[in-house]
Amino acid sequence: MAKANGGGGGKAKSLTKSQMYEAVAQASEFSRADVKKFFAALETVIRDQLGKKGPGVITIPGVIKLKAIKKAASKGGEQRPNPFKPGEFIITKPKPASVKVRGSGLKAFTEALK
Known about the structure:
Blueprint: H1 17-28, H2 32-50, E1 57-60, E2 64-71, E3 79-81, E4 89-91, E5 98-105, H3 107-113
Antiparallel strand pairs: 1-2, 2-5, 3-4
Helix pairs in contact: 1-2
């Protein structure tokens, strides 16, 4: 337990889920159970907004903007030049469609971190 959260030197580790709940509960003076309910509700709202039926964008006020970027499936089977061995060709593999979530900090938040 001595090495948890940067105890062994080097870079400090991020908070665990339990530590995050505790930190928010102490800062806001809400009970830990209320903080857990808040994070559960926030997760539901984010999932609804970034999901198939949502707009694909959500802004958490004052903190971050999240975007769901839909990547189409690729068929594969095409010949492309191998970037590691000039003159050789490789056959691309098919890839399924996927969704990437990108986040960017809002201006006031990122400037406060400097």
